[in-house]
Amino acid sequence: MSSAQLARVRTAILVVVLIAVAGVIAVIALRGGGDDASVANAGPSSAPSAEATPSATPSKSPSATPSASATSPSGQPCDDGKRDIDPTGVDEDTLPVDCGLTPVSVEQEKKSGLTVACGGRYPVILYKTYTQRGQASVCGVDASGAKFRIAFKPKDGKPVDMAARYVSDLDAFIGEDEGTEYGILGYDGTLVVTAPSGTMKSYKASDWMTLDNEDDAD
């Protein structure tokens, strides 16, 4: 074989090899493109992601506890100085006892006398007043005021329980104990104390209340 023929054979073989290589590359390229297309055509998942759902049950707020009405140790309504009480006590059976105080029993009254909470044989509080000298109550057998006593609790000294009378000209409840006279002015609660020597001192009321079962409009 001449050198010219040998050169043509080598050229032909090179061309075939190049074509074969090109074919392999084309096949690989096609396969790679198909995979990319598959990935490109894949859409997002149709299943939504789960989200946290807030609880439908509201938290419980502390329950409101109604405030209890003011009551005395005996369980009856009492006067705590803040309650809205009719100052004339129209149509009431008695004025309320001050909170923290308990009316005395009949036995206690006979032994130690009445207190400003009244009780015993004089269970009805007809009148009460508060002054710088002390507190006083007019305690009645009933709401009529036909029979009553005065109980006085000084800020210093021993309590006093005394028989009393009503002086209409003065509008005053007056009692006496060991020579000292105690007068309560019904129209403003002033306490007038007259010593055995005749010295008189008056103490204006900071607060007072009366049981009045008569219609003042008449």
Write a concise synopsis of the structure shown.
By secondary structure, this protein is α+β, with helices and mostly antiparallel strands. The chain contains 2 helices and 11 strands, in the order αββαβββββββββ.
Can you describe what's shown?
The protein is α+β, with helices and mostly antiparallel strands and 218 residues long. The chain has two domains: 38 residues; 133 residues, no CATH class. Helices cover 21% and strands 28% of the residues. The strands form two sheets. A nine-stranded antiparallel β-sheet has the order 10-9-8-7-6-5-4-3-11, with no helix packed on it. Strands 1-2 form a two-stranded parallel ribbon. It is rod-shaped, with a radius of gyration of 53 Å.
The average pLDDT score comes to 76
Uncertain regions: pLDDT < 50 for 5+ in a row?
34-69, 213-218
Strand order of the largest sheet: 10-9-8-7-6-5-4-3-11
Going by helix content, strand content and strand pairing, the class is alpha+beta
Work out the helicity level: 10-25%
Strand proportion, as a percent range, falls in 25-35%
Tell me the domain tally.
2
- Biggest sheet features: 9 strands, antiparallel
Kindly report how far apart the N and C termini lie: 161 Å
Shape, please? rod-shaped
- Strand runs, count: 11
Query: How large is the count of helical segments?
Result: 2
Based on CA atoms alone, the radius of gyration comes out at: 53 Å
Order of helices and strands: HEEHEEEEEEEEE
